[in-house]
Each structure stands twice: as structure tokens, then as C-alpha cells.
Amino acid sequence: MKTCLLISGGPLDLLFAKNFISARKYDYIVAADAGFSACLELGIHPDLLVGDFDTFGREKIQSYLSDPEYQIEIHKPEKDETDTELAFRRIREAGFQEVDVLGALGGRLDHELSNIHLLVHERKKGLQANCYDAKNRIYILDSEHNNEYNFSKSRQYGRYVSFLPITETVKGITLTGFKYPLQDKDISILKNPSLCVSNEIQDETAAIKIKEGILVCVESVD
Asked: Beta strands 214-220 and 160-165: pairing type?
């Protein structure tokens, strides 16, 4: 399966990004707005640049338009979508079903929350997006796509695994192989939203089953 990387325009720990990217191979790289600055500092040549470039610099991006090595898509700042949403759309149109994302966490809280909501939006459209920073991996578990998700202790991103409801209620959660198991439990944003926070994989493998709803899964280093 071909792999894709999106470098969004949020704050990015360049040392972490360098180590993260060097340990993986990507067939297609997209930079959204200021994500291009990170690419330049990391010595990465993105396949596509997209956004309004109000952060990178609209005048600055003009100097790259005549370079045939860059495919650039410039949008007006007055638009309905964020640059990250525009990038996700192009990634889907390029035929990818999964993408790793750097630079989508931290920084402005409104952008971070928007990016997490975008994970749900993209999952509904067939794209599985995984957001990473130095301490977290964040992605969506959706009962419409799969009722059971498996975890491996040797491949987990961090020590802790949390499941947070993104739909008002997530029904029929069963956790096996975790330190704190559950059996056919409903969790709700309005009643018990923190029930599945800070769990740990106890066995070599673990699993979550979901009867109905959407969860945000966060694997955290500490």
C-alpha cells in the first residue's frame, strides 16, 4: 500500500519530525501552508503545496510558482475550509486511504480541535488520518467501518491508551487485554466522558469492540 504524509501548518518539533520521517518511507508528501516552511528546514521536497499561504507568506510563495519541481495550489484567505481540510481533500483525490499527519496538534486550540473533528469528517469519506506529535498519536475508531480494533503492545505509540466519545453516546464498548477491561459499556459525553481515559495494554495484544458510535483514540507516551 502506498503511504502519504501531510505536514500541516501548526507548530512542529523539527527534531521529532526529522526522526519520525527518517524511520518511515512515504510515496507522497503534502504540505499545507506553513508546513512548507517545516519541509524546507527538514530538507524535504513535498509533492504538493496547498493553502492560502497567509502564514508562509503570499508574496514568498510566488517565488516558487515558476519552479517546475513544485506543484502549488493557492487559495484565497476568504474560504470556508482550513488549509488542512483542503490538503485532506487532495490526498483523497490522489487515491490514498490513509495518511500520517504532523503539525496538526498544539498551537492554537481552535485549530487543534478543528483538526480532530476533521479526522471524523475524513474517516466518513474513507480516509484514515493519524495525527502525531512527540507524545501522542490520535486517530478515529468508527463502528460504521469496523466493530473491532486490535492493539499490539510491541507496536503501540505510547504507554497509555484513551478512548474519548466524539458522538454523544458510544454504545457497547468491550475492552479485552487492557488493564481496565469493560464489558458492553456505554459512554456518553454528557454522563461519563472520562471513563476510558488512561488505560494500558496489559497483555501482548488487546482489543476494543464497539456496537455503535465514534471514538477518538489517543495513544500517549506519558
From this structure: antiparallel
| CA distance between the termini of the chain | 31
Report pLDDT for 184. 98
- Count CB-CB contacts under 10 A for residue 61: 19
Predicted model pTM: 0.93
Only one residue has cell 482489543, namely 207
- DSSP tag of 123: H
* Cβ atoms 5, 99 nearer than 8 A: yes
Alpha carbons 9 and 11: distance in angstroms, whole number? 7
User: What domains, with CATH codes, occur in the chain?
Assistant: 4-134 (3.40.50.10240), 140-220 (3.40.50.10240)
Kind of pairing, strands 136-142 and 205-209?
unpaired
**Could you read off the pLDDT of 37-76 as tens digits, one per residue?**
999 999 999 999 999 999 888 889 998 888 888 999 999 8
Lowest mean pLDDT of 71-80, 91-100, 175-184, name the range: 71-80
